[in-house]
Design goal:
Largest sheet of chain A: 2 strands, antiparallel
Helix content of chain A: over 70%
Subcellular location (chain A): Cell membrane
CATH topology of chain A: MetI-like fold
CATH architecture of chain A: Orthogonal Bundle
Pfam family, one (chain A): BPD_transp_1
Radius of gyration of chain A: 24 Å
Helix content of chain B: over 70%
Number of helices of chain A: 12
Organism (chain A): Virgisporangium aliadipatigenens
Mean pLDDT of chain A: 86
CATH topology of one domain in chain B: MetI-like fold
Oligomer: heterodimer
Distance between the termini of chain B: 25 Å
Strand order of the largest sheet of chain A: 1-2
Structural class of chain B: mainly alpha
CATH architecture of one domain in chain B: Orthogonal Bundle
Number of domains of chain A: 1
Largest interface: A-B, 110 and 106 residues
CATH superfamily of one domain in chain B: MetI-like
Strand content of chain A: under 5%
Membrane topology (chain A): Multi-pass membrane protein
CATH class of chain A: Mainly Alpha
Number of helices of chain B: 15
Structural class of chain A: mainly alpha
Order of helices and strands of chain B: HHHHHHHHHHHHHHH
Protein name (chain A): Sugar ABC transporter permease
Mean pLDDT of chain B: 84
Low-confidence stretches of chain B: 1-14
Number of strands of chain A: 2
Distance between the termini of chain A: 16 Å
Radius of gyration of chain B: 26 Å
Chain lengths: 303, 299
């Protein structure tokens, strides 16, 4: 179009606010964090000066709390992908059935997602409280001694955290699956069943493959979200007891804001980012590749 | 539909005996019974904790021990009433609203301007710049919290609403730019040509034509920005020391720490803090779910 060339300064002006914000408060701090991870620093007085090379990173591999974080993160990921997501998928298919009141169920199941993690955590602190918490009161009605100090027992706390996380997020994944399920044309499932496929076969060979891209994205979101889990754990348990529910983000917060070992904390955050990055790259390369192919071509073609 | 087929033996494609509408209806509702049972059980796990909070706020601590289930007897209005006349609830509520609105305005305006350039102008380095912003999606908030805190401290933005608003807007940019760019791109070039022929400047086209046309997309990204600002906890936690600055999540958390023994009062606070979220959800449900699903189901 004519006159485009003269738009240069205007375009720069249009981009300026976003660039300023992004460089100043996202890229800048990230670079600063990377830089400080090579120093021993308490976080005060100008830039860090005591260069320690990779010492902060090697320390990670002998830090039992950090190694525990990795292990606990892995347990949470396995539980989420193995239990929470399949349940969400089942519920999505369920509320997709023409049953009465399904829109009520949909809205209700999604509701916990809109509550903040902090409010969820405070509510569940009360529910799981050992003295007059609702959960133990309900379990008290059952025979046997099944009451627990759920959040104060290192053996149960991680599972309690998992239950609370699932309570808050299953509706989100359900809504993703539901949207994907609704975009599958009815002709496809109908054609399969008129060809003699039973309900399970229709699900296994028609619905599930077509939900594939959404399931893969939802696993991705779930894993990344679990790696970064902070608010909920911080309010629910503070990472305790004896680090029983601590996550990487909690550990880095402890070191950075409670013990003022900012250099070491930065090394944790860099490692956390690298884990996310490696996961994202590997996942995109091997799992999402087929899903993204179409989208990528469109992006390239539209240049 | 899958269950319909499940009820019919696959090996017998013979014509089914005629079924009256009434019979079919009864059969459907029988078949749906287990589904309803599951839905109600799952629903109960959501409703019961919320009811526990709401009703617990109407009990006193003695009643929470003696009558853990069931309705309060007598109803105690003191917990809610105290909360509603104190600044302990209204102040954080006001702060949360102010910060959410300011963040949203800032991130949507800055992103719309940038997305407009990315979507409708060709210049050298455009894709590089756009990729730079997309990379921002990869940075979780927790990764940057330490250096961000140092930067904010050096800029003297601690205990200042801007210390939360500006970073929230900055971290919201990638997602917002990506969504808006896609939308702006779909607006036909003929619209722009007509506008230019009529003497519109780029700004005029952006402000008077593009933005009004993009209202649905703007609504979606605004709703997402409001929700993420509203629920943000980590940043306000490190930025605000001064209790008069606290946002609602921070207020709830601190209140719980302060009145740990007074369960009924905490439940009342939690219930009140839930109300705005649920109200917003009721108003913006469509935009929220469409915004969340658009990313994950396309492509």
């Amino acid at each position: 179009m004519r006159g485009r060339r003269r738009n240069g300064p205007v375009l720069a002006l249009f981009l300026l606010p976003a660039l300023l914000l992004f460089v100043g408060l996202v890229l800048g701090p990230i670079v600063l964090g990377l830089y400080t991870s090579f120093f021993s620093w308490n976080g005060f007085g100008g830039l860090p000066t005591q260069f320690v090379g990779l010492a902060n990173f090697t320390r990670l591999w002998s830090d039992d709390v950090f190694l525990g974080d990795l292990q606990r993160g892995l347990i949470l990921i396995v539980l989420s992908v193995g239990i929470q997501l399949p349940v969400s998928l089942g519920l999505a298919l369920l509320v997709n059935q023409p049953i009465r009141g399904r829109s009520v169920y949909r809205v209700l199941f999604f509701a916990p997602y809109v509550l903040s993690e902090v409010i969820t955590a405070v509510l569940f602190t009360m529910l799981l409280s050992p003295n007059n918490g609702l959960v133990n009161n309900l379990l008290g009605l059952l025979p046997g001694d099944v009451q627990q100090t759920w959040l104060a027992n290192p053996d149960t706390v991680l599972y309690a955290v998992f239950v609370v996380v699932s309570w808050k997020y299953f509706g989100f994944h359900m809504v993703l699956y539901l949207a994907a399920r609704q975009s599958i044309p009815q002709e496809l499932t109908e054609a399969a069943s008129s060809d003699g496929a039973n309900a399970w076969q229709v699900f296994r060979h028609v619905t599930l493959p077509l939900l594939g891209p959404t399931i893969r994205i939802s696993i991705f979101l779930s894993v990344i979200g679990t790696i970064q889990l902070f608010d909920l754990v911080w309010v629910l348990t503070g990472g305790g007891p004896v680090h029983g529910s601590e996550t990487m983000a909690v550990t880095l917060f402890q070191y950075g804001f409670k013990r003022f070992e900012v250099g070491y904390a930065s090394a944790i955050s860099v490692t956390m980012f690298l884990i996310c990055l490696v996961f994202a790259l590997v996942y995109q390369r091997f799992v999402l590749r087929r899903d993204l192919e179409g989208a990528m071509t469109v992006l390239g073609a539209a240049k | 539909m899958t269950t319909k087929e499940a009820a019919r033996p696959v090996s017998a494609p013979a014509p089914r005996p005629p079924v009256t509408a009434k019979q079919a209806k009864r059969r459907a509702s029988l078949r749906h019974l287990p589904l309803h049972v599951i839905c109600i059980l799952v629903g109960a796990t959501i409703v019961v904790p919320l009811l526990f909070g709401i009703l617990g706020g109407f009990k006193d601590n003695g009643q929470l021990v003696t009558r853990p289930f069931g309705l309060p007897d007598p109803w105690v209005f003191e917990n809610y009433a105290d909360m509603l006349v104190s600044s302990g609830f209204w102040r954080p509520l006001g702060n949360s609203i102010f910060i959410a609105v300011a963040t949203t305005l800032l991130v949507v305006l800055a992103s719309a301007l940038a997305a407009f350039v990315f979507a409708r102008f060709a210049f050298r380095g455009r894709e590089l710049l756009f990729t730079l912003f997309s990379i921002g999606l990869m940075f979780p908030f927790a990764v940057a919290i330490l250096p961000l805190y140092v930067v904010l401290r050096e800029m003297d933005l601690l205990d200042n609403p801007l210390g939360v608003i500006l970073p929230q807007a900055a971290f919201g940019l990638p997602m917002t730019i990506i969504i808006l760019r896609g939308f702006f791109r779909d607006i036909p070039g003929s619209v722009e040509e007509a506008a230019i022929l009529d003497g519109c400047t780029p700004w005029g086209f952006f402000w008077r034509i593009l933005l009004p046309m993009a209202r649905p997309a703007l609504a979606t990204v605004s709703v997402l920005a409001v929700v993420s600002s509203w629920n943000n906890f980590m940043l306000p936690l490190v930025v605000f020391n001064d209790p008069s600055m606290w946002t609602l999540p921070l207020g709830v958390q601190q209140f719980q720490g302060q009145y740990a023994a007074d369960t009924a009062r905490i439940l009342a606070y939690v219930t009140l803090a839930i109300v705005p979220s649920i109200a917003f959800y009721a108003l913006a449900e469509r935009h929220l779910t469409s915004g969340l699903t658009s990313g994950a189901t396309k492509g």
